[in-house]
Amino acid sequence: MKPISIFDKIRPHFEKGGRFSRLYPFYEAIETIFYGLDHVTGQGPHVRDNLDVKRFMTIVIVVLIPHLMFGIYNTGYHARLSAGLPPDFLPVITFGFWVVMPMVIVTYAVGFFWEALFAVVRKHNISEGLFVTCMLFPLTLPPTTPLWQVAIGISFGVVIGKEVFGGTGRNFLNPALTGRAFIFFAYPAQMSGDKVWIAVSQVKDAAVDAVSGATPLAIATLVESPAQVEQVLAESGYSFSKMFWGLYPGSIGSTSTFLCLVGSLVLIVAGIASIALSWGVFLAFWLQADSSIFWLVSVPWLGWV
Amino acid sequence: MNLIRVRKGYNLKISGQPSQEMLTVNKPGKVAVVPERIPFIKPRLKVGKGDTVKIGSLLFEDKRRPFLKFLSPGGGIVDAIDFGPRRVIQKIVIRLDTDEESVDFESLSENDLDTISRHELVEKILGGGLWSFLHGLPSRDIASTDSEPPAIFVVLDDLEPFQPEPSVYLHDKDQLFVFGLKVLRRLSPRVEVFARPESVRRLKTLDGHITGRVTGRYPADDPGVLVYMTRQSSKENRTWYIRGQDVLLIAHLLKHGKYPTDRTMVIGGSAARRTGHIRVRLGMPLAAFQPFAEPGMDIRWITGGVFQGYPTGPDSYAGLYETAVTLIPEGRHREFLSFVRPGFNKPSYSRTFLSWFNGSDQPFDCNIHGGVRACIACGNCVKVCPVDILPQLTFKAVLAEAVEEYLALGLMDCVECGLCSYVCPAKIELSSVLADARRQYHQEQSQT
Predict the structure, then answer these.
(1) Of A50, A54, A58, Cβ closest to residue B346
(2) Residue B137 half-sphere exposure toward CB, CA atoms < 13 A
(3) From the list A34, A51, A52, which residue is nearest B371 (CB)?
(4) In this predicted model, what pLDDT tens digit does every residue of A3-57 receive, in sequence order?
(5) Contacts of B137 (CB under 8 A, 6+ apart)
(6) ipTM score assigned to the predicted complex
């Protein structure tokens, strides 16, 4: 029996007139993961590009996987270091895995629940954009975030950031970052960002006090002149190369500048991300950091852009 | 000679390019007119089943503009008149006699062309049933007989896959073509002839007559794109255009006083066993192309190119404007894990498949390659649109019926090339949404 025949057998139940026809978006999402559709064009243009939203979004997820893996390693590394244990590779990965993966799984489960619910009620297809949102969201969180906050954050992101506007493509907010912003304001004690987040290995009763400290951004704001930033950061243990490669405490997927650059480059070359949008934000940020350049350069340029 | 360089657009790396070879088909037993595929007209029948017709006898006229006449491409007996839903006339089939009779029209010499008044000339083309080959921008409706256009653009090439080569259809016909240009010059003070540099090189005898060279990707040589690239004032938006091959038809009518019956078509596409150019009758039965189709394959028959053609089948006939038969596989198959395959043989506008490194032409099929989703504002349609409208915003404005907004976005500049629908990863029918809105807007305008 070919695997497609399983789908052929159960599809009628989900199509119009079937017992579960209301759940069709849910069914379509599952089936099209395995098999491409056999729909053909009815009118010109008779041929269509091979790229679809599923592949479009899959590529973003693929680009995020190195971040996830590095995040797992980084989380475990700092946890063991602060607990006074040697950062051996295997225990580091195991510990990081047990901290990060529950967050990812909770995000996907809760996010998919909301998307499927809205898809069934609002009768739209389940968009693959959700899977990107659910991958991005845990990567923006500190590894110490409790799972219930993860669930609430992604719920807010998907429902308020996206679904209330009609779903993917009709939202004007990025759902992952909307969720992140929500829990930043809702739970400032855990999220405010002025303390370093390290998921401490609880097995050996390590001292929690040993791991709190200012984040690089918090240190940078205390410096009097911009020229000193790099030096002061280096003195606090955040050398340029450390900040670039990413082996320092922080949100799971955000520490490695290197991986961010590689991911950005891949997405731009593949034509998925817009260089004007993504690098424009970075550029504006950088120009603003040096206010003299900002006023000289950015204002006349606003008319150009 | 002006060089017009069009920067946007997109060329498909599609296999099945027709060869230069001239193929032959037998004289058909029947020919037909297909009113269904003549946009903007409502036919009023002037013949009945069983009537005897000559080449050039009146078959039907347009209800709204009765001076637009459509004549018989063959002599014989009206064999069948097929009606579709709501009694739309699908086709009028004529069984040909062995000796076909032909209606005589008055012929014109080169000198007559200088002396005849513009009005008389228009009447002659109308009476000969060939006015419908002149189109007016921006609507692309059949040109209005009331006004003189700012210019007439003659386009020799067509970058849409696949269309006849000018050097093939103009072979030994340059005299006739020049005569046709002379006719057009009586209709408008400015006549421009556009061709690709490659064609200009092959058409040495017409060197002095070609006024513009066009380089760029499909649809660079579309008359709408050419107007968009060259216009100096808004008046030029009302430019007329005619395809190079249709100039020959009008010239034939006026020079010889007979309704033309022949034209050059191409057969191409990856589901065609043999490709090439064919000299055929107007209204040729597509069954005559059956021997060129790959046997035992689920094939999409397209009259016209892969972007703008109509879906038909071997039981249909070539329409008035159609110069190509394209055969490509239907592609009704379900591919396992299709969205994660490396895709060395999957052509794409994006660079998300390994086909990016594959320079060779690939067979295309009619599969949509994905599910319909909401617009994710990826901007691919903006990157390909040759006339710089923002299709992703325009189609939303059309669906929201925000008339002023979609006109401001440039809906009437749209050339209906179909590239936006082609590249859309959300599989939205952008092009047909825009084309329908254009047609509706034009109809509302022409009623008032």
Answers:
(1) A50
(2) 29
(3) A52
(4) 677 888 888 888 888 888 888 888 888 888 888 888 888 888 999 999 999 999 9
(5) B223, B224, B227, B237, B238, B239, B240, B241
(6) 0.89
